[in-house]
Amino acid sequence: MRHFLDFEKPIAELEGKIEELRRTSDAGGIDVAEEVGRMRDKAQALLRTTYGKLTPWQKTLVARHPDRPKCLDYIAALIEEWTPLAGDRAFADDAAVIGGLGRFRGRAVAVLGTEKGSDTESRVIHNFGMARPEGYRKARRIIELASRFNLPILSFVDTAGAFPGIEAEARGQSEAIARSIEACLDAPVPFVATIIGEGGSGGAIALAAADRILMLEHSIYSVISPEGCASILWRDAAQAATAAEALKLTAEDLRRLNIVDAVVPEPMGGAHRDTAATLAAVGDKVWGLLEPLLALDGATLRARRREKFLEMGRNSVV
């Protein structure tokens, strides 16, 4: 069953009426094709109008949509000969961070990502995409493995942020994130990161300090969640919509600020309405950015990557 967000209620009502007419037609043999067509056109027009003027908060809700394609969906669609790697060789395996080796369009690559899960059981298994220290240590291990064997790195990021529990802090959460960012910046191989849903705080940048950063049209990327920002500034999480506007967290804002390198358009109504088209579009864009990087040597890649992130700091004032 399709999930509808609060601002999509008029669309949901129209699509519900269309489905009801179809059931009536099937049961009574009544020809309602003309009426269904007219209502379908109206629903599509309403969808275009609604998604043509989304606010930053509404984009945040779309980025969190439960049916949105997840990291494992991208891996299944884009990576051949997928071989997952587990564990940080120190404490445990963190299911929130996905990592392994495979082939992307015939090229051997290392792959990283954060996985939220697609139903209640898998969300619990993957801790809703919130990694613990061992997840970031696993990411660092795979980045170092890729560096050793000259494998390009692809990452698919979708996380609200690192797990905030006391046990994570006790096991060195901040150090693990910092070391993962360091490994990203130091890798002498091409690195393309894609924000596929939420890109939350250091938990996201730990897997996205890359040569090229993509965002899907309705994904978000921010130092803090709108709710967290609102709780700090106004002591009221209900001010999240105001915070989302101030944070400049949309793909459009971040492309304008040169924080990300490219934006991948989504099907009308969001990535969840046409998963196959979304996965194909991301694959094409990732390859288009990865291919030129393959010709560069490690020293050049590292120097350019360092300069890229230094430049973000110089231009950080909005």
TrEMBL record:
GO function terms (MF aspect): acetyl-CoA carboxylase activity
A Pfam family matched in the record: ACCA
Reactions accelerated catalytically: N(6)-carboxybiotinyl-L-lysyl-[protein] + acetyl-CoA = N(6)-biotinyl-L-lysyl-[protein] + malonyl-CoA
Membrane spanning residue stretches: none
Purpose: Component of the acetyl coenzyme A carboxylase (ACC) complex. First, biotin carboxylase catalyzes the carboxylation of biotin on its carrier protein (BCCP) and then the CO(2) group is transferred by the carboxyltransferase to acetyl-CoA to form malonyl-CoA.
Annotated keywords: ATP-binding, Cytoplasm, Fatty acid biosynthesis, Fatty acid metabolism, Ligase, Lipid biosynthesis, Lipid metabolism, Nucleotide-binding, Transferase
EC number annotated for this UniProt entry: 2.1.3.15
Residues annotated as domain CoA carboxyltransferase C-terminal: 38-292
Major localization listed first in the record, in broad terms: cytoplasm
InterPro entries, A to Z: Acetyl_CoA_COase_a_su, ClpP/crotonase-like_dom_sf, COA_CT_C
Protein name, UniProt field: Acetyl-coenzyme A carboxylase carboxyl transferase subunit alpha
Similarity remark: Belongs to the AccA family.
